[in-house]
Amino acid sequence: MDAVEEIWRGLAERYPILEVCREDIMEAYREMRKSFEQGGKLLICGNGGSSADAQHIVGELMKECVLPRQVPQAFARACRRLYPGQGLEGKLQGALPAIAIGTNQALASAYANDAAPEMAYAQEVFGYGRQGDVLLGLSTSGNSENVINAVKVARAAGLRCVGIGGQGGGMLRELSHVYVALPERETYLVQELTLPVYHAWCRMLEAAFWGDGHN
User: Fold this and answer.
1) Is 58 left (phi over 0), alpha (psi -120 to 50) or beta?
2) Strand locations in the chain (E)
3) Whole-model pTM?
4) Tens digits of residue pLDDT in 70-88
5) How far is 31 from 151, CA to CA, in rounded Å?
6) pLDDT at residue 214, as a whole number
């Protein structure tokens, strides 16, 4: 069994309710992996607890989650050549580029005040996003206006869009290339299932890029 399948099986054993989401969870993982393999990045947005989840995901992707992450050998050699004896390369960890949208308060408040509050996330997606990147939208209802606008702009800019939220899914389900419909409707119950799913994604991605001797 490869590492990614093992991570899925562990998730399904702990949360059997997620078995109904297997295909979409794995497809979302493949979308993110493909983007990273091609030099893309992951943009993530949500409100309230989902905004906290977005930042949590960034923390798991931009540094070690479970596995040791060596920096690329070419970069390590450059550090040793330019700064011999300083060991910079040994103090850094391999990273998968991810940005939590909406966490720059100066930008968010300026855009809300000067332009359109419901477009603040969309503006960041427009500024950061490039074709081949992935936008991950988190919304328990699937109808958060600022998240929906971000997804619309992402699609117009050529990004792939992954959504995760409640069973209904709302507009987020309709607009996403891949939508993970968690089998709950109450906000707190959807959030309780969101965390183990994105932890599994982060572990799968880490295994893909740093497991089995890859680096």
Assistant:
1) alpha
2) 42-45, 98-100, 134-139, 160-165, 178-181
3) 0.96
4) 999 999 999 999 999 999 9
5) 15
6) 54
